[in-house]
Give the backbone structure.
Amino acid sequence: MPAKVVVIGSLNMDLVTRAPRLPRGGETLIGQSFSTIPGGKGANQAVAAARLGAQVSMVGCVGSDAYGQQLREGLLAEGIDCQAVGVVDGSSGVALIVVDDNSQNAIVIVAGANGALSPDVLDNADAVLQGADVIICQLEVPDITVGHALKRARELGKIVILNPAPASHALPAEWYAWIDYLVPNESEAAVLSGVAVDSLQTAAAAATQLMSAGVGKVIVTLGAQGLMFANGASCEHFPAPQVKALDTTAAGDTFVGGFAAALAAGKNEVEAIRFGQVAAALSVTRAGAQPSIPTLQEVQAFTS
Ligand code: RIB
């Protein structure tokens, strides 16, 4: 039986337009295409972990609309256990995404049903958490629930990963001791640490600063520049595999899900980092969030 990853977080329907560039304030641009694609950082990480070899359970909420049904069915089709994905009255979470010709994106999310993932809902899913080897959280559901989840995951002795995305403010100080791996991107690392991250040196400084807050280890993802891994003894740069990027949406989610799946399967941290990096690199060569996430066989073929 594969090891078990439990993802606590968001499910969104992504409303994606491609345009030559991102619009400026007050500007109307003519777009090139529009697609409706399953996403949400939590669901993307669940799909990544499942495609990359883990047994996965999702804990979250969708709305009573058509999007909610599609999002839930999409996860079930990946073999993801959705017994703890509740359906609440109202709209599912959505993300409005523009992707430009340089493969960069801009995203606005509206929480919808993700806002209903309360500590009580989590308590009702405690048996699911108990069965986990690795538990992953992000920040697209209420902070009070994330804190509750991290604390419970630590009590249960699980490997705890927080992808602090999106980051709009400092994390509550008590959270840090509950986290084994904090995985921000450069802008999230800057918000959390107060260090402007614009180079490998400043990424290392931000990671060191976050380590001093009490987190186990820090991985600052840096897009095409790879990532910076801080483990308390040193900061190590891992360059990214070089690929031609089409769409970077969900690259970070693919890294987190792949990293978690590899850890759950018993790989060491360095192996898990490299595995997650290959998965993320493959994801940016394809469009969309969940459709872009590679399978275990594709990652193995890339590395062999
Ligand atoms: O990380 C990418 C995801 O961010 C998208 O799928 C979108 O739903 C937003 O949550």
Remarks:
- The chain has a mean pLDDT of 97.
- The first strand starts at residue 4 and ends at 8.
